[in-house]
Amino acid sequence: MQKENxxxxxNINVIGIKVLEQNGINIxxxxxxxxxxxxxxxxxxxxxxxLRMHCxxxxxxxxxxxxxxxxxxxxxxxxxxxxxxxELGGILPIDAQEFIRMSGCEFLQLPSPKRTDLxxxxxxxxxxxxxxxxxxxxxxxxxxxxxxxxxxxxxxxLREEIEHESWFLELLYERPSGHMRRKYPGERPHTHxxxxxxxx
Length: 200
Ligand SMILES: [Fe+2]
Ligand SMILES: [Fe+2]
Description:
Layout: H1 3-10, H2 15-22, H3 27-53, H4 57-87, H5 96-103, H6 118-143, H7 148-173
Helix pairs in contact: 3-4, 3-5, 3-6, 4-7, 6-7
């Protein structure tokens, strides 16, 4: 938690935090992970936008649709973190560059030398989804039975990340995903209730 914020919190009785401490939750650890996960989702949203633009040709056209579904759900995942960060007394970094840097998502930059290499683009997308599963699973493990509000967000995001992984596994390795396309881009069946401000 940033210093100024912690100071401001000292004199305020926040029962929503106190009960979590009594439940054995390390609040600073949860805030740190929520902010980190938010940075990964935000940065992945940006990079997926650029990767999607480079899915060219006949084959690229169908891949575009799948990346679009995953991309818009990453934006939903970023939004889904926000109220919980502030309810717990955290804040986003003041410097946006710090926020992007902490994500460690540089690997999602366009493939080189061929920017439109579809297989390489899909491999990057898969790696991002698998990293996200690890991140959200970690937060689920830390909050289950102790912090129901954060757990509710983490498990719903995890559910979508697992679907995203299966989509890219299917496209790369022909492993059937049971994939039903979203009814519309940005449907976000599991995180819709956490990101209502997106209004789609
Ligand atoms: Fe995500
Ligand atoms: Fe995802």
